[in-house]
Amino acid sequence: MLAPYHQPHEPQIECPQCRRHSVVRHGESEYVCLNCDFRRDLSQHYQGGFGALLLGALAFVVVLALAP
After folding, report:
1. Which contiguous run of DSSP H or E holds residue 48?
2. Residues 46, 8: Cα–Cα separation, whole Å
3. Distance, CA of 64 to CA of 4 (rounded, Å)
4. Which residue from 23, 28, 29, 27 is spatially nearest to 10, judged by alpha carbons?
5. Residue 49 and residue 57 in contact, taking contact as beta carbons nearer than 8 Å
6. Phi, psi angle pair for 6, to nearest 5°
7. Residue 15 Cα to chain centre, angstroms
8. What is the value of pTM for the model shown?
């Protein structure tokens, strides 16, 4: 007897443009909406966020060093 194959259930992601739950993962870091033309590559966003985090931490250390 064969049992049906079930893939692990991924949470449905809502599209920020059309508000439908039709966003799917395309590749390692890109997400695409099947309903509209929305696309986002998250690898680019994480790289910029890390640089901003480092800059903020450096500014905090400088402010602490200069405080009386």
Report:
1. helix 42-66
2. 26
3. 61
4. 23
5. no
6. -115, 125
7. 13
8. 0.49
Amino acid at 33: C
> Is there a contact between 54 and 46 (Cβ–Cβ < 8 Å)?
no
Higher pLDDT, 20 or 60: 20
- Return the SS3 of 2: coil
CA distance 30 to 38: 11
Cβ burial of 36 (10 Å; 0-12, 13-18, 19+) is middle
How many other C-beta atoms can be found within 10 angstroms of the C-beta atom of residue 23?
22
Q: Is 30 left (phi over 0), alpha (psi -120 to 50) or beta?
A: beta
Instruction: Encode pLDDT of 30-62 as tens digits.
Output: 899 999 989 988 776 555 566 677 778 888 888
